[in-house]
Amino acid sequence: MRVVTGAEMRDLEKKAFANLGLSSLVVMENAGSRIVEVLKAEFGPLEAKRVHILAGPGNNGGDGLVAARQLLTLGARVKVYLVGDQKRSTKENQSNLAVLQKLGADLTPVDLKQLNKLRISLSFADLIVDAIFGTGFSGKLEEDLADLVNLVSDVQCPVVAIDCPTGINSATGEVATAAVKADLTINLGLLKLGCLLYPGRAYAGKNVVVDLGFPLDAQGIARELLGPEALSWLPQRQPWSHKGDHGHTLVVAGSVGYAGAASLCAQAVLRGGGGMVTAAVPESIYNRFPPDEVIVVPVPEAEGGTLGEGSLEKLQGLLAGKDVLAIGPGLGRSRQVIKVVQTLLRTWDGPAVIDADGLIALSTEFLRSVPASKRQRWVITPHPGEMGRLNASDAAAVNGDRVGAASSYAQQWGLVVVLKGAPTITADPERVYINSTGSHALATAGTGDILTGLTAALLGQGLDPLRAGALAAFVHGRAGDLAGEKGQRGLKASDCLAFIQQILQ
How would DSSP label each residue in 127-192? Predict the structure, then answer.
């Protein structure tokens, strides 16, 4: 499903209007009809229900006015509150307001300086519709409007936002002052980015997308919400296939105190459908691994129980015959570890997943020294703090523009970025996938190691780096959702492993 900013949606509509000769009033009528259809589907028969609509002076308010008229024909008890300077209303808004006036609809201009009457009136509503700004808002709400928004959010009845809750930046999800806390957001035409990115996502409630009665040419939008359809990317397996057909991954991971990182990563390769996995670990933690399906190879180590320059001969020998390299979980951050990671990445020509401590090795100087043909086969999986270090910012800046942070780094270095978090963003130089699964249940040690192993498994089965990263994020999040059904607080990373098999089938 394509995802747009408010500005992009307006551009798409303008092009459609010009190409198809559509009237903006006709499109607004379609929008109002779709809004009412959703309200009926979500809240049942609307006859005699008290529906209170807050309508701004723009076209978002116009959509609300059309919905108000159609709700009146259904027998709903509609009350419309006119918010903002009506002298600045769009012509479409004015036309629909004039119709309501002729119908004798209950229309009340809102005095933002005196909200007590509005507070009392809204308390009698069965349903409130926010049609104040929609996607036309950015920046900060004025104090009076912020008070209105907080008032609406405090009312104890369902709140529905049209296109985007008032107070949310439709491009970034930013809430600078306050925003309407909606139970449901009706996205008109296409899903809005600000309703998917936090904190906006927390205010949008359930997102529903409705068409506007005409096709939108969104092929130029390289941003998509990733759902279960991504499972169709999995290659079909022949009945006569064997383990060698599904990829052999070399996991280079672990150090004293972090054997679990290597184990979780390797187990995730197998649960993700990988045919074989070899875990190369410092020799001092070799005995920490139980006898199971993972091939564990002890490697000479440096002082402190980490891999070091003395490990390289053994590790480079282990690369032979492998299909994928997964490197980083639990390695440590010493200079010797950085040397190991950089040497192996320079040596290795196949697909690679680089995570956690492995990311420390990706200095600008090192990346410039690696041919673009190698980098385009890499998938990196940073969390916001790691992404901040990579692009010389910080976690707060990354989370303020998650899509931009992932996309710009992918474009700069020609690789795939899987930016972990809420939501996880997967980007290559041309496309972006926004993950639809996962929750705070995954906010626990070791889940990132599982994502690394999953990504490696999918690379080994033939998926290109972008699809491997995006599908791994989807499966990883869905496994967390399923494991979290027993309780999201207290979930362990290993709880997710068994559900991966169930999802991939």
Answer: EEEEESSGGG--S---HHHHHHHHHHHHSSS-EEEESS-TT--TTT---SS-----SEEEEESSEE
